[in-house]
Amino acid sequence: MRLLDVPVDGPPLRDPKDVVDIIGEAFGARPDWIVIPVARLGDGVLDLKTRLLGEMLQKFVNYGFCVAFLGDVSAVIVASKPFADFVRETNRGTQIWFVPDRAALLARLGHA
Q1: Rounded distance, CA 110 to CA 112, Å?
Q2: Order of strands across the sheet with 67-70?
Q3: pLDDT tens-digit profile of 40-51?
Q4: Positive or negative CA dihedral for 54, 56, 59, 63?
Q5: pLDDT tens digits, 66-102
Q6: Contact present, 105 and 99 (Cβ < 8 Å)
Q7: Do residues 99 and 67 touch, judged by C-beta distance below 8 A?
Q8: Whole-angstrom Cα distance, residue 66 to residue 3?
Q9: Which residues contact 48 (CB under 8 A, 6 or more apart)?
């Protein structure tokens, strides 16, 4: 299982065009999953009303990449029922996951 780990230190991902470099790197690395730290997401990205997260994810999905967001989103889940529903639905799927930590990701991938 090949993972492309996006570094936690780096400019915040605030806009769909901010993921273009990650997609470019993924084309070269050919990962099974792109792992993005939640801490790397800019302000407002997890607010579904902004549509930023959906637009970012659409770019990854259009190119056939799977994305795992690594980190604690529990505060956002508690504050937003739509986001809680979104996380629940994406985590049922096979292309986009929200996982609390690397151990949970590896367990989900069958590498515990």
Answers
A1: 6
A2: 3-5, 33-37, 67-70, 96-99
A3: 999 999 999 999
A4: negative
A5: 999 999 999 999 999 999 999 999 999 999 999 999 9
A6: yes
A7: no
A8: 10
A9: 54, 80, 82, 83, 86
Which residue in this structure is represented by tokens 């930023």? 52
- Please name the residue that has the structure tokens 């407002």: 44
Token duo for residue 8: 């936690």
Residue 22 has pLDDT above 80, yes or no: yes
Which amino acid belongs to residue 48?
Answer: L
CB 28 within 8 A of CB 63: no
**Helix, strand or coil, per DSSP, at residue 109:** coil
For residue 46, give every residue at least 6 positions away whose Cβ sits within 8 Å of its Cβ, in sequence order, or none: 38, 53, 73, 76, 83
Q: Which two tokens stand for residue 76?
A: 């956002």
Q: What is the pLDDT of residue 112?
A: 53
Q: How far apart are CA 29 and CA 35, in angstroms?
A: 13
| Residue 37 main-chain phi, psi, to 5 deg | -65, 135
